[in-house]
Amino acid sequence: MDSSFRGVFPYLVSPVDASGHIKTDVLGRLSDDLIRAGVHGLTPLGSTGEFAYLNTEQRAAVVQATIEAAAKRVPVIAGVASTSTADAVAQAKTCQRLGADGILAILEAYFPVKDAQIEAYFRAIADAVDIPVVLYTNPQFQRSDLSLDVIARLSVHPRIQYIKDASTNTGRLLSIMNRCPDMRVFSASAHIPAAVMLIGGVGWMAGPACVIPRQSVKLYDLCRVGRWNEAMELQRSLWRINEAFARFNLAACIKAGLQSQGYAVGDPVPPQAALSADERKIVEATLTELNALSSA
Fold first, then answer.
1. Which member of 136, 162, 220, 263 is catalytic?
2. What's the number of domains the chain is made of?
3. Closest Cα to residue 192, out of 222, 228, 235, 233?
4. Model confidence pTM above 0.90
């Protein structure tokens, strides 16, 4: 298995039953099918994985089930998130012990946190493990953000090699690339992946790749070989899924889409709500259109 991270990394959902147990069989089947579809890695406990709604035992079960299903065929980058530095460090150590190939580091915040504390949080995680760390910033949902100065300082850490920025500001991604030449940038679903690849991105980590893995991999392959006209034609079609999902709760959309594809992933963790019947129809119609296009 290549030790570098690049390509399509679906943000996996966390299937939870009514009693709160992780449905590891469902997660294992989904992970296996995604690998067979050609994805380049798996990311449990990203935003689509509802990390903010799971307890310690549930998070560990999700990570372990994903690692077991991957069976070293592709890297597993496990999400670590907390409002507490000590808790985040403990999570990271657990993920490494379970066999994760990398850490997706997220900072949750209740009170505002200044740059020095933000930097210290991520540095503590990277100091605690011996595997690569991907910085993740999503200012739309987080109370804190990583400034360019903080990113630049963290980029010299030997284990902080990647960043996934979901700011929706593609110019910011180019600024990161310019200021941190050794930092490899992943696109989020908030960006246009083909555009991020054009300016030097190495792939994307996103929930929609769970439901359109083959199309996502095809888009990545076209970008990798510089077939930009074909890539943008496919990108324009795939953007429909982003438009549909932007209207609703992301985890609810991905879970609804996966259920329509035969995966019993269940509903989002309360207090989140499942999609209504009409909302499910919108998601299912979009997926049907995209599958028809890919078969044409």
1. 136
2. 1
3. 235
4. yes
